[in-house]
Design goal:
Blueprint: H1 11-15, E1 41-42, E2 55-56, E3 69-70, H2 211-214, E4 314-315, E5 318-322, E6 327-328, E7 331-333, E8 340-348, E9 357-358, E10 361-364, E11 366-368, E12 371-373, E13 379-380, E14 386-396, E15 409-419, H3 425-434, H4 438-461
Parallel strand pairs: 1-5, 5-15
Antiparallel strand pairs: 2-3, 4-7, 6-13, 7-12, 8-10, 8-14, 9-13, 11-12, 14-15
């Protein structure tokens, strides 16, 4: 929700505070988990199952209409239609307990189906994730869910803010319902909205009412807080314009869901345009319903988003890996149907570290969601802890499909941070063979026996 300027409430104004607020939902953490100075890290299979649905076939060479065809199943056994991964944490959306927040570990300590990385109540099961006062503590675990300083059990309006004045919460007619949530403040039987004087039961004729006493203006925005004369749609919040986008009686200045699409403004990709599906085709955080510019953001990295109408761009995410582990290098570009040559290189590495990249050069033709697939995946294995810088360069084969430029080229540099003990280059190269398991061991044993056999024959003949 957007920040608003609030003015202190007088005792009289507090008596007329009558807001019916809708539940709010917590703002998710920064999806990248990184600062703005560097792009976020990518999943590398060290923390769980990672992968993007594979594809085959197609091709757009020669300006034809061919397209890639996704294979039936992904690495998790789901069809592609159900295998999108919005936050690119390697966990496909149907299985991800924080769809828009990267959490490769998927920890959910309270078992409510919402991962700890985005759960507003870590130790209290709350699938709805309601957070009425927007303080980050969900209603299920918040001792003061409306944030007015009064504990829920003792609050005369537990779901509507009504802070104490002079040591007690205002209750003009002493009926036990605080003034902030009492539809009849003075207890005269006339609802506030139609009462000639909502604060004084003795005044029943509008002609006898004194506006300054009967119709206060807590926030001094020129709109009376209560009464029949167009009451303020945000009592206690200065909003002289009284804008109410969804027409629900709550002004935008205090409405937690301005467009009434059942998505709280704090989480809404279009706070002022109803978009219950929250579709965001370019993954930039602004929903399609209110986003006039398409620029695909990989893992939320808006600073390096891919504009399909711009000159050729290439991108690869940064990685956090363990030393000795083989890393698949991913390639994104702002093109569809563009054949490109690629070249990977290590331009900076810790002292003594291996700088070898397998399958560093080749040609790519097919992509899905701006990620290209390889015939032979380029891989890099860090052998020493520390920071590496990997650069990828691409060059269009033939004319660029957007600009018609011949030989268009682009490059990008990403970080790889390796943690762990140093390993030898030989050990890292041998790792894939070791992972083949029993078959590799069996073949190795047979070769050893064959090597010994001639020697044993010669010994016997002697």
């Amino acid at each position: 929700m957007r920040p608003h300027t609030r003015r202190p409430l007088s005792a009289l104004a507090t008596l007329t505070l009558a807001l019916n607020t809708a539940p709010a939902y917590a703002q998710p953490a920064n999806p990248s988990g990184e600062g703005t100075e560097a792009p976020p890290f990518e999943c590398d299979n060290n923390f769980g199952t990672c992968g993007t649905p594979e594809m085959s076939g197609g091709g757009g060479g020669g300006g034809g209409g061919g397209g890639s065809v996704l294979i039936a199943n992904t690495d998790l056994g789901d069809t592609y239609q159900n295998a999108d991964d919005y936050d690119d944490d390697g966990i496909e959306d149907p299985q991800d307990n924080c769809v828009r927040v990267r959490n490769m570990d998927q920890v959910d300590r309270d078992g409510d189906g919402v991962g700890d990385a985005c759960d507003v109540c870590l130790d209290a099961s709350d699938a709805a994730q309601a957070d009425r006062d927007g303080d980050g503590a969900g209603d299920a675990c918040d001792d003061d869910r409306d944030g007015d300083g009064a504990p829920n059990g003792a609050d005369s309006c537990p779901d509507v803010p009504n802070p104490a004045v002079g040591g007690a919460q205002p209750d003009l007619d002493a009926d036990g319902a605080g003034d902030a949530c009492d539809d009849d403040l003075d207890g005269d039987g006339a609802p506030n909205a139609s009462d000639a004087c909502p604060l004084d039961p003795a005044i029943t004729d509008a002609a006898d009412s004194a506006d300054g006493r009967c119709f206060p203006d807590a926030d001094q925005d020129g709109v009376f807080d209560v009464g029949a004369l167009s009451p303020d749609n945000c009592v206690g919040v200065y909003n002289p314009d009284q804008v109410d986008t969804d027409g629900d009686g709550e002004g935008d200045a205090c409405d937690l869901d301005d467009d009434a699409d059942d998505v709280a403004d704090a989480d809404d990709s279009c706070p002022l345009v109803a978009n219950p599906d929250q579709a965001d085709g370019d993954r930039d955080g602004a929903g399609d319903a209110c986003d006039d510019v398409f620029c695909f953001a990989v893992m939320g990295d808006q600073a390096n988003c891919l504009d399909p109408e711009a000159t050729l761009q290439v991108y690869t995410p940064s990685f956090l890996v363990a030393t000795g582990d083989s890393l698949d290098l991913r390639l994104f570009a702002n093109r569809q149907g563009q054949v490109m040559e690629y070249s990977w290189s290590v331009i900076d590495a810790p002292a003594g570290a291996s700088q070898a990249i397998r399958n560093a050069r080749g040609v790519v033709r097919e992509q899905s969601l701006y990620e290209y697939t390889y015939d032979a995946k380029p891989t890099f294995t860090p052998t020493a802890p520390g920071e590496y810088k990997l650069a990828v360069e691409v060059r269009a084969v033939g004319a660029d499909v957007v600009t018609d430029e011949v030989g268009a080229a682009a490059s990008f540099t990403a970080r790889v941070v390796a943690e762990g003990a140093p390993v030898s280059a030989a050990a890292s190269c041998a790792q894939p063979a070791a992972r083949q398991g029993g078959l590799g061991a069996l073949l190795g044993g047979l070769l050893a026996l064959l090597a010994l056999y001639p020697t044993r024959r010669r010994t016997q003949q002697a």
